[in-house]
From TrEMBL:
Keyword field: Ion channel, Ion transport, Membrane, Potassium, Potassium channel, Potassium transport, Transmembrane, Transmembrane helix, Transport, Voltage-gated channel
UniProt domain KHA: residue ranges: 561-630
Species assigned in the record: Dipteronia dyeriana
Domain Cyclic nucleotide-binding: 379-498
InterPro entries per the UniProt record, alphabetical: cNMP-bd_dom, cNMP-bd_dom_sf, Ion_trans_dom, K_chnl_volt-dep_EAG/ELK/ERG, KAT/AKT, KHA_dom, RmlC-like_jellyroll
Molecular-function GO terms, alphabetical: voltage-gated potassium channel activity
Protein name, per record: Potassium channel
Bilayer topology term: Multi-pass membrane protein
Biased composition (Polar residues): 530-542
GO cellular component terms, A-Z: monoatomic ion channel complex
Region (Disordered): 526-557
Function, as annotated: Potassium channel.
């Protein structure tokens, strides 16, 4: 097997299939990766002429073809030992053809590159390849298992010899079984094949080979006993030596299967001492083989059911915990529903798999799954693709079963959610009863009011049916917006537009909202009134949010709350004036003066901190600062 001169053989080093970019390292076999610290230059990748890469797809097909011939050899070698007439008949021609293919493989091996275990690089030097192969036991055993000893003896002597010595020499062909073992190892790691079916096929092959070999050896004992009638088969078939080969083979396989399965009907049993010794050894071997098969099958079955065991154990722990602590029935049902859903969706989420992937791949997966959903959410409509990409890369997907709270009223706002699928209710608890304020569906948002205003969550959000959401961290959103003022203004614009469309019953639960929007010079839309021109409304929102152009703008587009006072920090005031007024920090110093004038009824010209430091830039202020304006 040689390669055309017009094609560089170096491509075969990098790919196991004929298609694909030869420089694509994603297709490199793990066994060809160089060790850490090993320097690989381009010249190393150029192999000599007539050198075959071990992972070339054509060489792999050749190896697969040889495995088929190995199956024949594994059947024929014990069979020809027991039934000598078949060895000197038609099977001899087949054996010669099979041996010729393995002889060709011996020659081909002198041209196959091998992996250097010290550097994990392919060695392509002909001399090194030949020296390594000849000095290993592989070469000796390959030659010994390939030579047709009986045919060579016939050529040299001109006589046909059917002695047992040639039958035992033919057993050297069983050395070829290592190819089958290597094939199964490769198939177990190949994701295109079922691991369960591969292991099951391997166990079946081992069992069939054991049954076949034991039956043939047992028949060989009967053939070579001095008294044919004093054998396990002679007691049933007196002239079995002169009967059909396939009759004897059928009896042998029947005895082997009955003994292997420990049935032991007793119709075929050991008669002489030699057969009894062989039976004892075979039954001891069966114990080991049965343990091997049962262990592997148990491992395969338990592996497929281990997730179910974990789920049932977790549910039992929840039941014991709920009973011990006297939890109400409704809360216990929520815990059980969440745990069952967790195990049902484990295959979809596979967090343990994603954690092992590089961050770039995880980000690409998130972009593929959630990018469109986030773009359709009202808060992020019209923002740049870069902002969407930064947000999506850090999002977490979660499932919630029906009638489970995603957000609790008055809890600390750390995250908000975008609904991917399902349906949720927004409700409040008032006077001991629930009141549903609105219903949310796919692409709607929940929890953003508490996050944007940095206040305890004003509403409870509960699922109506199985729902999938993606969670966005409050801190991550602030970090992203600090670097992009334009997108921050667009988000605030979208947010104000959403606040204007809130229904009256929701506005009643947010008493500060009317005053806040009034401070930003925005008029609320009537509760049940739809805007006549949405585009004009959005344009007006943008203009209102931007306000007057200033040279210094807030570094963060998230609202910052500060407390303002209408006097000097050293001035003694009444208790009501000492508390001050909590406001959202406007975009400029001038706007802050106007807002203070509106609150205290007098125009100020100086802003001091509590320690007397004068404020000159709005960007220097932080959350919960005490400001004195006079």
């Amino acid at each position: 097997m040689s390669w055309p001169e017009t094609r560089s053989p170096s491509t075969l080093l990098f790919r196991r299939h004929s298609s694909g970019d030869p420089k694509n390292f994603a297709s490199v076999s793990s066994s060809l990766l160089p060790a850490f610290g090993t320097v690989v230059d381009e010249n190393h990748l150029q192999r000599k002429k007539y050198v075959i890469a071990p992972y070339d797809y054509r060489y792999r097909w050749w190896q697969a073809f040889l495995v088929v011939l190995v199956v024949y050899s594994a059947w024929a070698s014990p069979f020809e030992l027991a039934f000598r007439k078949a060895a000197s008949g038609s099977l001899m021609v087949v054996d010669l053809v099979v041996d010729a293919f393995f002889a060709a493989d011996i020659v081909l091996t002198f041209f196959v590159a091998y992996l250097d275990k010290s550097t994990y690089l392919l060695v392509t030097d002909h001399d090194k390849i030949a020296t390594r192969y000849v000095t290993r036991i592989w070469f000796t055993m390959d030659v010994a298992s390939t030579l047709p000893f009986q045919f060579i003896y016939r050529i040299l002597t001109g006589k046909m010899q059917n002695g047992d010595v040639f039958g035992f020499l033919n057993l050297l062909r069983l050395w070829r079984l290592r190819r089958v073992s290597e094939l199964f190892k490769r198939l177990e790691k190949d994701i295109r094949f079922s691991y369960f079916m591969t292991r099951l096929s391997k166990l079946i092959c081992v069992t069939l080979f054991a049954v076949h070999s034991a039956g043939c050896f047992y028949y060989w004992l009967a053939i070579h006993h001095h008294n044919s009638d004093n054998t396990w088969i002679g007691s049933q078939v007196h002239d079995f030596k002169h009967r059909s080969i396939w009759l004897g083979y059928t009896y042998s396989i029947y005895w082997s299967i009955v003994t292997l399965t420990t049935v032991g009907y007793g119709d075929l049993h050991a008669v002489n001492t030699g057969e009894k010794l062989f039976n004892m050894m075979y039954m001891l071997f069966n114990i080991s083989l049965t343990a091997y098969i049962i262990g592997n099958m148990t491992n395969l079955i338990v592996h497929s059911a281990v997730r179910t065991f974990f789920m049932r154990d977790a549910i039992n722990k929840i039941l014991r915990y709920a009973s011990k602590n006297g939890l109400p029935e409704g809360l216990k049902e929520q815990m059980l529903a969440h745990m069952q859903l967790k195990f049902k969706t484990a295959e979809l989420q596979q967090d343990e798999v994603l954690e092992d992937l590089p961050k770039a791949i995880r980000s690409s997966i998130s972009q593929h799954l959630f990018r469109e959903t986030v773009k359709n959410a009202y808060l992020f409509q019209g923002v740049s693709d870069d902002l969407i990409a930064q947000l999506v890369s850090e999002m977490k997907a979660e499932y919630f079963p029906p009638k489970v709270e995603i957000i609790l009223q008055n809890e600390i706002p750390t995250d908000f959610y975008v609904l991917v699928s399902g349906s949720v209710d927004v409700l409040i608890f008032k006077n001991g009863s629930e009141q549903i304020l609105s219903k949310l569906r796919a692409a709607d948002m929940a929890g953003e009011i508490g996050v944007m205003f940095n206040i305890p969550q004003p509403f409870t959000v509960r699922t109506k049916r199985l729902s999938q959401v993606i969670r966005i961290s409050h801190n991550h959103l602030k970090q992203v917006l600090q670097a992009d003022h334009d997108d921050g203004k667009k988000i605030i614009s979208n947010y104000i537009g959403y606040l204007k469309s809130l229904k009256q019953d929701m506005l009643e639960e947010l008493p500060f909202l009317t005053e806040l929007l009034s401070d930003m010079n925005i008029k609320l839309t009537a509760p049940n009134e739809e805007p006549q021109n949405p585009e004009a409304s959005n344009s007006q929102q943008d203009a209102d949010v931007k306000g007057p152009e200033t040279s210094s703008s807030s570094p963060s587009m998230m609202p910052i709350r500060v407390i303002i006072h209408g006097h000097h920090p050293d001035t003694k005031t009444t208790e009501g004036d000492t508390l001050g007024k909590l406001i959202h920090l406007p975009a400029s110093i001038e706007d802050l003066f106007k807002l203070a004038e509106k609150k205290f009824g007098k125009r100020g010209s100086t802003i001091l901190m509590a320690d007397g430091t004068q404020v000159e830039e709005i960007d220097a202020l932080r959350e919960n600062d005490q400001l004195y304006i006079f």
